[in-house]
Write a structure and sequence with these properties.
mainly beta; globular; Jelly Rolls; 23 strands; seven-stranded mixed sheet
Length: about 280
């Protein structure tokens, strides 16, 4: 059955490197994470996965990540709010704003700072699970050799697409974009602009008021996150309302219906991963 992960139940974690130190302050939550010993800031509430991790980082004004760090998995940032400047092994900065994506291959040194006047809110996604102490941190002046390059996928370069059945029909009208595509069985659009990954796909579907996603299932596991508006779903006998930053985890092959429950647009960010069994967290 699909599972709901409420944002209000996810207690912020301040346990990343120097996160409580002025200049580097930031906190994290996790909707989908690994089992014990692996990255998962909310093990009592998050969905457990052996294939990916999905969370949020809140980076206040004037703050940055500490130095540069590397992961053994690919990491993807989707900026929901604010402006970030990225710093990597090349020494050449890159910039990303709301709804832009930063694609960081495994082994690529990286970090970001808040470069604007608003607090930064970004979604982070790993294309695998990693032990909680596996990330390697380096000082700002560390000299790196040859490493993979970071790719910035601009939202302005993603043309709205209507790839699913009935997506152009009033009542079920909706459009989608992909920041990351390549997972077999996932919705694919923006092939020319999206980053490529065979383990995960990341995109967004937008529904205007009065529209719904009809009963749908996919051969991949999907996490929906409400990033604007309110959604209603009915996984069992009663309607469930999903508020801002609530998550809906839908295992492969499960059917779900989602409709816009507000007077404004409903934006659903989704992360698709491999369809192996992913047990829910214990309750």
């Amino acid at each position: 059955m699909p599972s709901v992960v409420r944002f209000k139940d996810l207690e912020p974690s301040w346990n990343t490197r120097q996160a409580r130190e002025a200049g580097y302050m930031r906190w994290l939550v996790t909707w989908v994470g690994g089992p014990a010993g692996y990255i998962n800031t909310n093990p009592n509430d998050a969905i457990r996965s052996s294939h990916c991790a999905v969370g949020l980082m809140y980076l206040p004004r004037g703050q940055r990540q500490a130095g540069r760090h590397t992961h053994g998995v690919t990491e993807v940032y989707v900026v929901l709010q604010g402006q970030v400047e990225g710093f990597d092994a090349s020494g050449h900065p890159h910039h990303a704003g709301p709804m832009d994506c930063i694609y960081i291959p495994a082994g690529c040194p990286h970090g970001v700072r808040n470069s604007g006047l608003d607090d930064v809110v970004l979604i982070w996604v790993h294309d695998g699970i990693e032990r909680h102490d596996a990330a390697i941190y380096y000082p700002d002046n560390h000299q790196f050799g040859h490493v993979p390059s970071i790719q910035v996928v601009r939202f302005a370069d993603l043309e709205a697409a209507y790839p699913e059945p009935d997506s152009r029909t009033p009542g079920t009208m909706r459009w989608s974009v992909n920041w990351v595509s390549g997972l077999a069985g996932s919705v694919a659009c923006n092939r020319a602009s999206a980053a490529r990954n065979e383990k995960i796909s990341i995109g967004m579907t937008v529904l205007e008021p009065g529209n719904a996603i009809p009963a749908s299932s996919y051969p991949v596991t999907r996490l929906y996150l409400v990033v604007e508006g309110r959604a209603v779903t009915r996984p069992a006998a009663a309607n469930i309302v999903l508020d801002h930053l609530d998550g809906l985890h839908v295992p492969a092959g499960e059917t779900v219906v989602l409709r816009n429950n507000g007077p404004g647009p409903l934006r659903l960010l989704w992360v698709d991963s491999q369809p192996a069994a992913e047990p829910a967290a214990p309750r």
